[in-house]
Amino acid sequence: MTVNMVSENCNSPDTTLYERASSTYAYNWKRFFIKNEEGTFERQYASFYSSRLRISTDLLHQQIQKKWGPSANVKQLCDITGNEKAVIIGTIFKHMELHPSILKEISEEHNLIPQPVNEEFSGEDDFLILEDDLQRVVLCGNIDPQIHVTGVNIAVLGYTEDSGNFFVEDYCYCSVKDPDILPSLSIDKYVLLVSGFCLRKADGKFPIQLLIDLITGYVGDSQMQKKYSQLVRVIIAGNSIGKEEPDSYESKYLTRKPRRITSEGVRALDDFISQLVASVAVDIMPGEFDPASHLFPQKPLHICMFPKSSQYSTFNVVSNPYDATIDGVRFLGSSGQNIKNIRAYSKISDPLDIMQKTLDWAHMAPTAPDSLNSYPFPDDDPFIMSEYPHVYFCGNTSKMDYRFSENKSVMMIAIPKFLETFCAVTVNLRTLEVEPVIVSDEVL
Q1: Which of 2, 58, 286, 409 could share a disulfide with 292, CB 3.0–4.6 Å?
Q2: Sheet holding 2-3, edge to edge
C-alpha cells in the first residue's frame, strides 16, 4: 500500500467521523524484567546453562516419547556402555575457529597488519559437542553443525564410535504447545509493527510524520480512514534512535568507542510518539542502538525520555523481548539482536528461517550468554518457549517478509528498518493476515 498526501481530501464533503476501536491487553513480559539479584555479575554463567537444561529436559522427554516411543533408551553419557544405542539429552556447544576470543585478540594486538573485522563466524571446520551435567562428547553423523548454534538443548539418538565420538542417527528438540485457537472477533482489528526509525536529528523525517498522519486519520480517503480507525495498537520494535558515528579522532585514538545519542533525536522521538498516543495505544521497545542497556533482555527505555508522551495512559515503555496478548492474540518478538547473532554464528541467513529454527529449538536466544550478552540468570531462563505465540516478529531486518511456521500455527514476521524501506506492517487480529504499509512522498 502506497500512501500519498492528496490535497483534495481537505476539501472533501465527506465529514464522517470514525471512532478508534478498543481492545483488551495483557502484558506477559514480566519474566524479562531483571530482579535486583539478577542484575549483578557476582555469579558465574554456568548456572544459566544448568537452569536451561533442567527446564528443557521435561519438554525434551515429551518429544522423545512422541518421536521414538516410551521405550526409548534415555541415558546420561557416563552410563553408556560399549556401542549401545541410546538417547542423550544435553546442550550443544559449537566449536568454531573463527569465534571471537579476547585471548586471541590480546596475542595478536602487536601485529603490524590490521586484521579484517568478521561479521560471520561459521566455517566449514566447525563441529558440535554435546554436554550434559557430567560429561561432553563430540557429535558426528546425521547432524549439521551449520544449522546449529551454541546453547541449543537437544536429544540425540545414536551410539558411541570406537573413536569416542557419538554418531547421531536422529535428533529432536523440545516439545512446545501450539497457541490457543484464535479468538472469534466480529470485526477486523489491526496491530501495526514498525522498527528502525533511527532518529538522530529532528529534520529529514517526513516519512515518519506521514506514517503518523496515516494512523491518526489525517491522510487518506474515507475508506482508508475507516480501516485505520480499527488499528488498536502500535508496536515500535527498537532502534528508534540512530547510531552516532564517532569522529576520526575518536576512531583513531580511543580504545573504547563512545556511543552518543543526540538530544535532538530523543526530542524528535517524543514529539512523534506524543502525536500517536493521543489517538492510539503505543508500545515502544529498546533496540541495539537505543539509550538502554545492551544486555539481553533489555530493560524498557527510561520514562524521562518522553515528557510529552508519558502524560498519556496509552503510552507504554516495554522490554525487549516483547510478550503481550492483544484481544486474545499473543505477540512475541524482539528488536532483532537475537536473530542477528544467530545469523553470525551459523550458515542460516534468512531472518524467517532463523525464526523458524528458534521455534524448533523452543528458545528465542540460545546464543545468550555465549555470544549474545545477557544477564546471568541463576534459576531460570526467560527465553525458553513452553508455548508458541500466534504472532512471532523480529525487528530491524533488511526487508519485509512473512509466512506461517512449518506447523502452520505461528505467523512469523520480519519487520524492516523504516529508515531504509519506509515500510511498516499491519496484522489483522481476526485472521492474522499481514499487509505492508509503505509510505512515500514521491508524488507530493
Answers
A1: 286
A2: 2-3, 434-439, 423-428, 190-194, 231-237, 281-285, 315-317
Q: 105: part of which helix (H) or strand (E)?
A: helix 102-107
Alpha carbon 407 to chain centroid distance?
20
Q: By the 8 A CB rule, do 38 and 295 touch?
A: no
Instruction: Check: CB of residue 357 under 8 Å from CB of residue 147.
Output: yes
Residue 391 CA to residue 355 CA, distance in Å, equals 11
How many Cα neighbours within 13 Å face the side chain of 177? 6
3-state helix, strand, coil in the chain (%, to 5): 25, 25, 50
pLDDT digits (tens, 9 = 90+) for 375-390: 888 788 899 998 999 9
Q: What is the reported pTM?
A: 0.88
- Angle at which helices 206-216 and 263-277 cross, to 10°: 10
Cell of 71: 521405550
| Contact assessment for residue 411 and residue 399, using Cβ atoms and an 8 Å cutoff | no
Q: Name residue 171's beta-bridge partners.
A: 156
Which SS3 state, helix, strand or coil, does residue 195 take? strand
Cβ contact 295:373 at 8 Å? yes
- Check: CB of residue 216 under 8 Å from CB of residue 20: no
Nearest to 92 by CA among 65, 52, 125: 52
Q: How far apart are CA 433 and CA 182, in angstroms?
A: 12
Taking the CB of residue 78, how many other CB atoms lie within 10 A of it?
A: 9
Q: Which of 31, 8, 99 is nearest to 377 (CA)?
A: 31
Would you say residue 253 has pLDDT above 50? no
In the structure grid, which three cell numbers stand for residue 219, read together?
491522510
Strand locations in 335-421 (E)? 391-397, 401-404, 411-416
Is the pLDDT confidence value at 2 over 60? no
Q: How does pLDDT run across 318-327, given as a tens digit for each residue?
A: 999 999 999 9
The grid coordinates of residue 172 equal 529432536
